[in-house]
Amino acid sequence: MPDKKVTIQATRFDPDHDEKPRLQSYEIPFSDESMVVLDALNYIKSHVDGSLSYRWSCRMGICGSCGMMVNGTPKLTCNAFLREYWPRPVVVEPLNNFPLIRDLVIDMDDFMHKLKSIKPWIIRKQEIPLGSGEHRQTNDQIDEFRQFSECINCMLCYAACPVYGLNNEFLGPAATALARRYNLDSRDQGLTQRLPVIADTEGVWECSFVGECSVVCPKGVDPAKAIQQTKLDTTMRFVLPFGNRE
Amino acid sequence: MTSEAHAAGREYRWRMPTSWWTRSRNYFFYVVREFTALPLALWLLWLLVEIKRAGDGPARYSPHGSAAFVVFSVVVLLFALYHSFTFLTLAGTIIHLRVLDRPVPPSLIVLSQFGLWAVASGVIAFVLIWFGR
To answer: Which CATH class is domain A5-106?
Structure first.
């Protein structure tokens, strides 16, 4: 089908010249049913307008860098097939809820600070010498946290979260899911170091359970579940006798 | 961009449009769920006023005599049922139980919550009717 075309409407914003973002239309060949939105953007960049800016890397839903709003929904553009939208135009915008740097490129600093604040690594009170062998875990222990470890930091959940959109002090879905991933890890002993951040008023208690973060997650992580479970855990630690012990 | 926003410095600052909750079905029902708390609170305030009036004697207490109160109460009941349903359904997501070293299925947890809800409602109804005779 050499004549098949698809219209891509992409956000353009040049901080040196533009007051606000605008949409620009591109009509490009829709030559292959397996084409995804990222392929369309790459075609535009290579053949139509080399100035279009956007992030991407792996093209296979692993790196999490090509997240954008596709027809109003946060998506990994490498996983958004044009055939699902054609013959309608495909509107590609930067992720909601983040400052815009240029075209489709958002400022990720806020998320990076939040991610660092929950210390997303295994914390030990006392490191076990390498010579004493590996930290062994049973399958059940791994199953406790496995789904939360699938997060690829794509930030689609932040773009879908109206709570974060209204108050960007909120720790947010992915950071909480990753905090829970480490708190549930039998090798980790860093819960008390993460508690001041996750149990803060701008932590899990800011969430009023919209649930859209879990709907848009491309990796099947359930951040809403992580947040609600953390609320229950922190309440139990407060209410139960000896709940605050290590 | 469809959002209301403003340029600040060299970045364009995102601002949520006031109509954000009309953008998706999930957002809409979320806002409805949150809104249900407001009429519930008003109904409880109204009830407190009626209880205060009851302190002046049975003749003063007649909330069901007002058609407006009955209509308002029916609407609030629907809101309360919707709010309770969404809250109890959430239990399957939040509560993480293991029995005999096996995880309890979320559906069973939700069912147990609805069962407890029904039992509690029955007990409260019995107490109110028994002592109200």
So the answer is: alpha beta
- The rounded mean pLDDT for chain B is 84
ipTM above 0.90, yes or no: no
Question: Does A212 touch chain B if contact means CB atoms closer than 8 Å?
Answer: yes
* Helix and strand counts by DSSP (H, E) for chain A: 9, 7
Q: Which of residues 5-24 of B touch A (CB under 8 A)?
A: 5-8, 10-14, 16, 20-21, 23-24
* Domain ranges within chain A, ordered by starting residue: 5-106, 109-239
* The pair of three-digit structure tokens given for residue B46, joined into one six-digit string: 């109204």
Q: Which fold has domain A109-239?
A: Fumarate Reductase Iron-sulfur Protein; Chain B, domain 2 (1.10.1060)
CA distances in angstroms from B39 to A122, A208, B32, B42, B74, listed in the order given = 46, 18, 11, 5, 11
CA A78 to chain centre: 14
Structure-model confidence comparison of residues A8 and B66, the more confident one: A8
Minimum-distance CB partner of B1 among A11, A166, A211:
A11
Calculate mean pLDDT across residues B26-37.
91
Highest mean pLDDT among A15-24, A135-144, B58-67: A15-24
3-class DSSP string for B55-105: CCCHHHCCHHHCHHHHHHHHHHHHHHHHHHHHHHHHHHHHCCCEECCEECC
> Which pair of structure tokens corresponds to residue A13?
């914003």
* Residues facing residue A108 across a β-bridge: none
Q: Is the pLDDT of residue B7 over 70?
A: no
Q: Nearest Cβ partner of A232 from B1, B27, B94?
A: B94
